[in-house]
Hints:
- With 206 residues, the protein is of the alpha/beta class.
- It has one domain: 3-Layer(aba) Sandwich (Rossmann fold).
- The protein is 50% helix and 18% strand.
- The protein has helices at residues 2-13, 28-39, 46-53, 70-83, 113-122, 127-138, 141-150, 165-178, 190-196, 200-204, and strands at 16-22, 42-45, 56-60, 65-68, 87-91, 103-110, 155-159.
- The strands form two sheets. The protein has a five-stranded parallel beta sheet, with helices on both faces.
- A hairpin with a 4-residue loop joins strand 3 (56-60) and strand 4 (65-68).
- The N and C termini lie far apart (65 Å).
- Residues 1-13 have low confidence and may be disordered.
Amino acid sequence: xxGGFIFIFWVMCLGRAIIVSGCPxxxxxxxxxxxxxxxxxxxxxxxxxxxxxxxxxxxxxDRDTKVxxxxxxxxxxxxxIGKASGFVIVEGHYADxxxxxxxxxxxxxxxxxxxxxxxxxxxxxxERKVRENIQAEILGSCTFNALEAYGSKRVYEIDTSNLSExxxxxxxxxxxxxxxxxxxxxxxxxxxLLDADNQLEKYxxx
Length: 206
């Protein structure tokens, strides 16, 4: 009897994660900070955590990127979630590393490839890095990874191409509170859109 009660109590005390994922440039940091302010919760930025605590295995010099050491990073994220009394936002383009049992909802941010190009070029990224991330966005890589990790019932998408921060936060709150089916994954398909417009070669030709 007591063992069952302790288990139920332990589950109830677990922190819960709101995952904000998406390719670089889709607005993850903007949304996460704005949403955290409204909800009064903390944000775990995976990129900042890796940088701050040295949780990377090597530096990819071609892409100017620190490659996370998942054997170190995952336990650390779980520890931080576990310390939370309620919700915590975990943001990053590989946020699907969070174990499923901690995840309440996943919001994948999307952006039209041309909008994304302008945002990434504004960061000063080289053409190779910009191109690789645009291709990942067209193919829906972050959505695919989220679906693989958490299943379709917890994964939602927001097209941030023309949204203000306030609009993004409002939509995210609606998703968290209401779980609206019209924002479930699969509603955004750049691949089909670009193919219909004969634009795919522009992004994938060598």
